[in-house]
Amino acid sequence: MSESETSDRDVRRTICEYGRQLLADDLTTGTGGNLSARVGEDRIAISPSGVPYEDIEPTDVPVVRTDGTVLEGDIEPSSELPMHLAVYEARPDVGGVVHTHSPYATTFASLGEPIPASHYLLAFAGSEVPVTRYETHATPEIGEAAVDALGEEVSATLLRNHGVLTADASLEDAYTVAQMVEFCARIHHQARAVGDPEVLPDEEMDRLAEKLDAYGQ
Ligand SMILES: [Zn+2]
């Protein structure tokens, strides 16, 4: 087996593992959400369309060229493939993308409100989690909206009236950001239910981002 076949196989297995983890962590239900990872410079692996996460096997996981051509995999790629591809194209630093409808973060997506940093762990995403303009799911336009909201540095955005998208150096990192965004959304929601949450200033968020970078190295 060639080196590229070995790395393809490992990445496809990782997609299966994190898909099951989405269910275990209550970040999605059924076949909702999707996730992808770069395999090489010009290819990504992405979760297949319409298969329950428990049933996805590595050979089901499509490997797709960045122009959208399917190279491997027994099942069609996720219908949100264009959104994933748009993020990889715009952000060469991104190695993994996770999209969920996790309930607390999606609550803010439906309100059209960014999630502010009322908890320090939001620093995993940026100084706040922005919201995109509304676009229909599974279109190239929702990918453009996500890219616009992410800009050059932020690693998470809410997709208006839809859900969450996270993008980071690896699938593992993007997954961690998805967990942190959901946790911070829940805390912010709860804090607002009983009072007026305090939001950390931008200088502190910059400091936290530096600490997280140092910790990651
Ligand atoms: Zn979705």
TrEMBL record:
Query: Which keywords does the record carry?
Result: Lyase, Metal-binding
Keyword Lyase recorded: yes
Protein name, please?
A: Class II aldolase/adducin family protein
Database matches in Gene3D superfamilies: Class II aldolase/adducin N-terminal domain
Coiled coil: which residue ranges? none
Record keyword Metal-binding present = yes
| Alphabetical list of SUPFAM superfamilies matching this protein | AraD/HMP-PK domain-like
Q: Which Pfam families match?
A: Aldolase_II (PF00596)
**InterPro entries under this entry?**
Aldolase_class_II_sugar_metab, Aldolase_II/adducin_N, Aldolase_II/adducin_N_sf
- Domain of life the protein comes from: Archaea
Q: Where's the Class II aldolase/adducin N-terminal domain?
A: 13-189
